[in-house]
Amino acid sequence: MSEQPLVNVSENTGLGTVEIAPEVIEVIAGIAASEVKGLASMRGSFATDVVEKFGKKSHSKGVKVELTDNGILIDLYVLLKFGVSIPQVAQDIQTNIRQTLMNMTELEIAEINVHVVGIQMEMDESNPEQQ
User: Fold this and answer.
1) Considering only CA atoms, which of 27, 6, 2 is closest in space to residue 104?
2) For the CA atoms of the chain, what is the radius of gyration?
3) What pTM was computed for the model?
4) Beta strands at 71-81 and 63-68: parallel, antiparallel or unpaired
C-alpha cells in the first residue's frame, strides 16, 4: 500500500466511515480510460510489464493518483491509435473517468491530466518486420 492517506467519502451518519484507497481510484480510472475508443494502451512501468507477461492484468497501469489540498489529481500516460483525433480522445478519456468516478464514489476530481506518450501504428500481420 502507498503511504498516501485514504479518501473519506462518508458523512457522519453514526454508522461508521467509508474510506477509499488511492489504489482503488487508480483501478477505476484505468478501467474507465480503457473503455474509450481510440486508446491503444496505457503506459506502465517495467514492473507492470513483467507482471502482465505472467498473465496478471494491471488495471491501474499508466494511472497515477495524487491526493492534495486542492483535491484529487489524476495523471494518465496513454498510447493512442494512429489516425484518431488526439484532443477528442483525450477529452473522451477525461469525461469517462470523471463520470465513472462520480457514479461509483461520488468524488469530485480536481484535475485529470492525459499525457499522450506515443502513437500505436496498426500491426500488419502479413509483414513480419512490423512485429
Assistant:
1) 27
2) 17
3) 0.78
4) antiparallel
Asked whether 70 and 76 are in contact (CB, 8 A), the reply is: no
Tens digit of each residue's pLDDT (9 = 90 or more) over 78-104: 999 999 999 999 999 999 999 999 999
Name the 3-class secondary structure at 71.
strand
Phi, psi for 47 (deg, rounded to 5)? -65, -45
The candidate with the shortest Cα–Cα distance to 119, out of 89, 60, 78, 63, is 78
Residue 18 pLDDT: 85
Amino acid at 19: E
Q: What is the largest CA-CA distance in the chain?
A: 64
Residue among 3, 75, 76, 63 nearest 27 (CA): 63
Give the SS3 label for residue 7.
strand
